[in-house]
Amino acid sequence: MVDTEPRTKAGAPRPAAKKKRAEAVRAVKSAGGITLRHRLRRDRTLILMTLPAILLLVVFAYIPLAGNVVAFQEYDPYVADNAFQAILQSPWVGFDQFQQMVNDRLFWSALRNTLAIFLIQLTLFFPVPVLLALFINSFVRPRVRAVAQAVLYLPHFFSWVLVVTVFQQMFGGAGLIAQTLRDHGHDGIDLMTDPGLFKFLITFEMIWKDAGWGVIVFLAALASVSPDLYEASAMDGANRWRRMWHITLPALRPVVALLLVLQVGNALTVGFEQILLQRTAVGPGASEVLDTYVWNVGITNGGFSYAAAVGIVKGIFGLLLVLAANKVAHLMGEQGVYKK
Amino acid sequence: MLAGKLNGRQQQGPLVRGRLRPVWEEEPTRAGLATKGVVLVGVCLAVLFPLWVVIVTSLSSVKTITETGGLVVIPRGITFVAYQELLGGGQVTRATIVSLCVTVVGTLFSMTVSVMCAYGLSRSGSVLHRPFLFILLATMFFGAGLIPTYLVVQGLGLTDSYLSLILPSALNVFNILVLRAFFMSTAQELIESARIDGAGDFRILWQIVMPLSRAVIAVITLFYAVGYWSAWFNASIYISDPDMLPLQNIMNQLVLKQERPVGLAQAINTGGLSPLAIQMAVMVLALLPVAVLSPFVQKHFKKGMLTGAVKG
């Protein structure tokens, strides 16, 4: 290290320099005993290793965040060859897009659908993994558990295209059920194109795909319960149902609270890919949610600015929902996503 | 995997020989066991039966398919003609190759960047460790939204390039945090002693930390690979050249939109090939790699998920 300290010709520190030096020593001590430059040198490989990821996030998460300015413009992709240039050259319109949104019947319809689907999923999907976990946990044979888990985890790894096609082959107009009904002289049914059933259909698809996967967290929570509790309560005469009520279920409470918070935080993001694949079959009236609306207005019809405005509103409300839900979790005495 | 371990029943004191239950626990009734068995079989069938039908139909001959009036449940007259046609060059073959390549290259890229980043952030106390971690975590709370992301990808000139299928979705912050939590739990003494022996960070990562984290690395690799293999949305908005579309998009066209596969129309029209068998065969191609790979990694799932849930 180069000694940069000002010294007198005699080599002894001047009084002013003395004070400065004391400050520097304090700074160095609070930084772990070495200077920042030294630490940068020491950690340069670590920084180098982290940089590619940071760069990717900046380009594909932070720059798009700034790109949301198009919501305050009348973005025209054709004023320049490049999207960045086009953003610079498009005219500013302030909050016009947001005003338009308030008066947009389709926006409100998409919002209604989104919330309806969220509520249906909350009541029908959410309890299933808990029940499945309790069920699997009730088996004592390792083989049975392993097989059940292997089978139940599998659909989680299928793409939505595959899941939707599987459902179509089972419940669609040419599907197995319709086929069986026709073979026995009934009319075929087509559950895939019924707008009234759509919200339940996609919830059912979600249960098929992801309920098994959701089991993992709950099983882990169950595994961490001390067996002493069960034994003690059994000694006190609690039968299996009481043990489940007083020991097993309370053990699941923190995980349930955490997942509820996450779920509520995602309330405005329901089944984008899944719905996109099926929206033509039932029409936008029943299936349009905020995400598909943004896709439809922006990507398909080129209304980038308006779609971005819808996206921003959705993002802000999503964030508020997470914060609110977490607050409620804290009030309930649970930890939630982040601590207080 | 021992039930005792999972249930925490192992420390339960002396178990009666051949019994998995602790002595104080009631023996289940026959009726109870039967009900549980039926439910279990029912749940498993709900998952497996549709897949069975898809696989059997894809292997059935035109004759069998016409006789049953559509989907086949009981296998008769097995033939691989649908697969031969699909994989004999042409649209589906090309799409399968595209999907495989994107998956392999993408997964390698994602894993390299993620593992390096996770290791770089796993040594708390290093410079810039906090701001970098903040940059990572903040992205979990906001999403930039579809439109601006689309505009950035377009602005970078990535549309109609395979890079648009990899770069925008290359990183999953949650995965990085899981890896990081694992790396942090690696014994610090090992890292320190390697450092004293003169190993640099890359060497420590490659020769000490990664071999010790095989389980979680397998899980995260599978997550990334499945992500790339299952992706179709990016291709649907960024790729306009039909020859560049991955398998999932082709499956969407062939099965959901009921389009005829390019180049196979003749075989179908002359009755040598059932369009239904073709559709089912495409579905089998799409599900096969995932169904084959995931069971191998399965025993590590719990570990990976838990670390993420607790420390993420």
UniProtKB/TrEMBL annotation, chain A:
InterPro entries: MetI-like, MetI-like_sf, UgpAE/MalFG_permease. It is found in: Cell membrane. Its main location: membrane. Keywords: Cell membrane, Membrane, Transmembrane, Transmembrane helix, Transport. It holds the Pfam family BPD_transp_1. One of its GO terms (cellular component) is plasma membrane. The chain crosses the membrane at residues 46-65, 115-136, 157-178, 211-230, 251-272, 304-325. It is a multi-pass membrane protein. GO terms for biological process: transmembrane transport. Residues 111-325 form the ABC transmembrane type-1 domain. Belongs to the binding-protein-dependent transport system permease family. This is ABC transporter permease subunit. It comes from Streptomyces finlayi. The lineage of its organism: Bacteria, Bacillati, Actinomycetota, Actinomycetes, Kitasatosporales.
